[in-house]
Design brief:
single chain, about 160 residues, alpha/beta, 5 helices
């Protein structure tokens, strides 16, 4: 089992080597294998990337991402503009499912609500929402609602096997 100091050093190295984030204002603490990331970054993408970097390190048991987003003045945008861009990004990423997803933005914090059929749709929706300037956080309140019931799938498979064993 790896020590907390080894894990901490590896996480700090991983953050420092990631060219997609500025890790100078990120602090790492490790206690009993659980990482705590604190500090400040300039965008929500940097915050999520720092967490992904930390999750790559072996030996860690958990990650608490308490990094705050402090945007430069030039990155701040009005909520309606963020919402419009998020809706456009969702339409591009999920052309058929985007109509079932609603976007709300309050002080740069974006909330996704609605129903999706598949896990990949939830992931793409969150990526599309956060991939823009001005977002300081994303709440994913999407629910899974399959369009086809499991009993219907079973029946369809059985019918297909009868047609072509």
């Amino acid at each position: 089992m790896r020590t907390d100091n080894e894990i901490k050093k590896d996480v700090e190295d991983e953050l420092r080597l990631d060219r997609d984030i500025d890790a100078s204002d990120i602090a790492v603490a490790v206690h009993d294998g659980v990482l705590a990331l604190t500090g400040y970054v300039r965008s929500y993408n940097e915050k999520t990337q720092a967490e992904r970097d930390a999750r790559r390190i072996t030996g860690r048991l958990g990650v608490a991402n308490d990094i705050k987003v402090r945007q430069p003045l030039i990155s701040k945008r009005p909520d309606p503009e963020i919402a419009r861009n998020a809706v456009d990004n969702l339409r591009d990423a999920l052309p058929y499912a985007s109509e079932f997803i609603k976007v709300t933005v309050t002080d740069g914090w974006l909330t996704l609500e609605g129903d999706v059929e598949w896990s990949y749709q939830r992931d793409r929706a969150e990526e599309a929402a956060q991939a823009q300037r001005g977002v300081i956080g994303v709440s994913d309140n999407l629910k899974f609602r399959p369009r086809v019931a499991a009993t219907d799938v079973k029946r369809q498979i059985e019918d297909a096997l009868k047609r072509n064993p």
